[in-house]
Design goal:
Elements: H1 2-13, H2 18-29, H3 56-62, H4 83-92, H5 99-112, H6 114-125, H7 128-135, H8 144-154, E1 157-161, E2 176-178, E3 189-193, H9 200-205
Parallel strand pairs: 1-3
Antiparallel strand pairs: 1-2
Helix pairs in contact: 1-2, 1-5, 2-5, 4-5, 5-8
InterPro entries: OTU_dom (IPR003323)
Organism: Rotaria magnacalcarata
Protein name: OTU domain-containing protein
Length: 215
């Protein structure tokens, strides 16, 4: 069902009036209460070598992150553009969710509370309407808007970790914990790491000497 809905949203994202079309579709999906029952997200608490694989390239990049996260183990996930959603599924251990479901739910949350996300992040991340178009496109790379929206979808805090490579002050927001709206002292927190599928040397070589994450 979510795959079908995402296909519909993806087609809407390619139209000239994509903003209005996507908003309308999201509002219609919101009426399907039987489909949008809250996700019961319980994050894993340890690395299981029988289930998880270490992301070796991310492990190298992790040594260039803040000291408080360098003892963590980056888990390998598919680098297909749905990396964010693949990561959530891997961290939940819940194979019932799919990237399509998480992308659609994130988009609905984003559209529903657009003013909140705009007021909080637009001056840093960019235009909301472009983000809406991007989220509606399957396999498109995710940004901070999606992380913030997902924290509310999952009712789980998300700590965003960015390596200190070519670091600038405007990247401070990428090393931040996004708390969900009902956050309490009992709330869980998961960590997501911005990395690259290639070594730093190769990544710079293909990007005019600059480094930016793609995974």
């Amino acid at each position: 069902m979510f795959e079908t809905l995402l296909t519909l949203l993806g087609k809407a994202s390619m139209t000239s009036n994509y903003y209005d079309q996507i908003r309308t579709i999201c509002q219609q999906i919101q009426t399907l209460e039987w489909l949008l029952t809250p996700i019961q997200f319980t994050p894993i608490t340890h690395f299981d070598p029988k289930v998880h694989t270490v992301d070796q390239k991310a492990n190298l990049y992790l040594q260039q992150a803040s000291l408080d996260v360098q003892n963590m183990i980056p888990i390998e996930v598919a680098a297909d553009g749905n990396c964010l959603y693949n990561s959530i599924i891997r961290l939940s251990g819940n194979t019932a969710s799919t990237p399509s479901e998480l992308r659609v739910r994130s988009l609905i949350e984003f559209v529903k509370n657009e003013n909140f996300y705009h007021n909080r992040f637009a001056h840093i991340v960019g235009l909301v309407n472009e983000a809406i178009k991007n989220i509606a496109s399957n396999f498109s790379f995710s940004e901070l808007y999606e992380i913030a929206a997902l924290s509310n979808v999952l009712k789980c805090n998300i700590q965003s970790v960015y390596p200190t490579i070519d670091y600038r002050s405007d990247l401070n927001i990428t090393s931040n914990t996004f708390e969900h709206a009902q956050c309490s002292i009992a709330s869980k927190t998961i960590c997501l790491f911005w990395t690259h599928t290639e070594s730093e040397i190769e990544a710079r070589r293909s990007n005019a000497g600059n480094w930016s994450p793609n995974h």
